[in-house]
Design brief:
Elements lengths: L5 H19 L5 H15 L13 H5 L1 H4 L2 H8 L3 H11 L16 H12 L8 H8 L3 H16 L2 H4 L5 H12 L7 E11 L20 E8 L5 E9 L4 H6 L2 H4 L10 E4 L9 E3 L9 H27 L14 H20 L30 E2 L10
Parallel strand pairs: 1-4, 3-6, 4-5
Antiparallel strand pairs: 1-2, 2-3
Helix pairs in contact: 1-2, 7-8, 7-9, 8-9, 9-15
Protein name: DDE Tnp4 domain-containing protein
Organism: Powellomyces hirtus
Cofactor: a divalent metal cation
Length: 391
């Protein structure tokens, strides 16, 4: 149910009173009508109905980071001090942090901390009001800081998420072949769900509703044997089948750009068997002894893909329940896309960073599947609105 602000409620009440006064005409006190008109115009011309309260300045809160021990610091910003400093150097000179006015922005360090706080929390812990109180800023600043940081991090994507070169693929194939029967495998592909915390405000909202009775996005992630994300897609509704996601990706439509004729990805049974995907057998064929052994071999390798997606969601729990409003505006979908891409970029940058034992994915959507890669250095947006339920 839509709730009106106190200002809107006051304008509505005064408007009704004025209508009644005009209908009564001479029977009503003219001075009273004048007072109503004056009050209505005064409120209508004022942006804020109530006085704005000041909040403690962010400098005091930001200084707390410097006195936190290493474990608490890592839990706060989802990375070590060294990794945080390196990331800050990478993005602090981005144009998004410069204003064409006399008013300077807040320190980039603070903006990055706020965005990482949102990436690293799920549920009520990721609420804008709570983040604002934590860092001593206004709620609107939380949203603005997050958007700026997402833009800056996504600009790193072409140098961080990219399809392996021919030489890299050769090394990947050799490393995988040492552990398996698959000589030309260049990676692993899987799909995973990104739940949305509320029903999308769209005409096709039911397309986001999947068999788990939740509104979500279905995304595809391709990674190598070192858990490095090499390709990903975003934009398909939760009701879209993994096969549809794969068929609409560049890996399927322009496979010659990414694979030699012999190269392929390992996937689960939710994907189609193609020239460049080798998938597990489905039942009842999976029950045959030879096929069951084959499936076990694939599963033993694909666990790397599951670990990759699990690490991504454990470090950035916001991906287990995006607290974003998805509506008909293109900006809302782009923000969700940027949020996901930024977390993928950070995942690759932080592969060699430390890990906290308490970073676990306690979520019904944190299962991992497998699907094929792409060579673009950015996230491609699928036509999610065209996906129909394929359950």
């Amino acid at each position: 149910m839509v709730r009106k602000s106190p200002r809107a409620e006051a304008l509505h009440s005064l408007g009704l009173a004025l209508q009644k006064s005009y209908l009564l005409g001479p029977l009503e006190n003219d001075s009273f009508t004048d007072d109503l008109e004056f009050a209505y115009l005064a409120i209508a011309r004022t942006r804020y109905f109530q006085g704005r309260e000041s909040v403690p300045k962010q400098a005091a809160y930001l200084g707390l980071l410097d006195v936190l021990d290493d474990e608490r610091f890592r839990n706060k910003v989802r990375m070590s001090r060294e990794a945080f400093a390196a990331l800050l150097i990478r993005i602090e000179d981005d144009a998004v942090f410069r204003n064409n006015s006399r008013c300077s922005q807040a320190p980039v360090r603070l903006q990055l901390v706020v965005a990482l706080s949102r990436f690293g929390h799920s549920g009520t812990g990721s609420r804008i009001g709570k983040i604002a109180r934590t860092w001593g800023i206004l709620e609107g600043a939380v949203v603005q800081y997050t958007k700026r940081v997402i833009v800056a991090i996504c600009r790193l994507a072409p140098r961080v998420i990219y399809w392996p070169s021919e030489a890299e693929r050769k090394q990947i194939k050799e490393d995988i072949h040492k552990k398996s029967w698959f000589p030309e495998c260049v990676g692993f592909v899987d799909g995973t769900h990104l739940p949305i915390y509320q029903r999308p405000a769209k005409k096709d909202a039911e397309d986001y509703f999947n068999r788990k009775r939740t509104y979500l996005f279905n995304v595809m992630i391709v990674n190598d044997h070192q858990k490095r994300i090499r390709y990903t897609t975003f934009g398909h509704c939760g009701s879209a089948h993994d096969t549809r996601v794969w068929d609409s990706s560049d890996l399927s439509t322009s496979s010659e750009r990414y694979f030699t004729p012999e190269e392929y990805l390992l996937a689960d049974s939710g994907y189609p068997n193609t020239n460049h995907t080798v998938c597990s057998f489905k039942a009842p064929l999976a029950n045959e002894p030879t096929n069951a052994k084959f499936n076990n071999c694939i599963a033993g390798l694909r666990v790397c893909n599951e670990h990759c997606i699990g690490m991504l969601k454990a470090r950035f729990p916001s991906l287990t329940g995006l607290r974003l409003v998805i509506n008909e505006r293109t900006k809302s979908l782009k923000l969700a896309q940027g949020w996901f891409l930024a977390c993928c970029v950070l995942h690759n940058l932080l592969l060699d960073d430390g890990w906290c034992d308490n970073w676990t994915v306690d979520d019904q959507f944190a299962e991992i599947a497998t699907q094929p890669p792409s060579a673009e250095a950015y996230v491609s947006v699928g036509n999610g609105s065209s996906a129909r339920r394929e359950e």
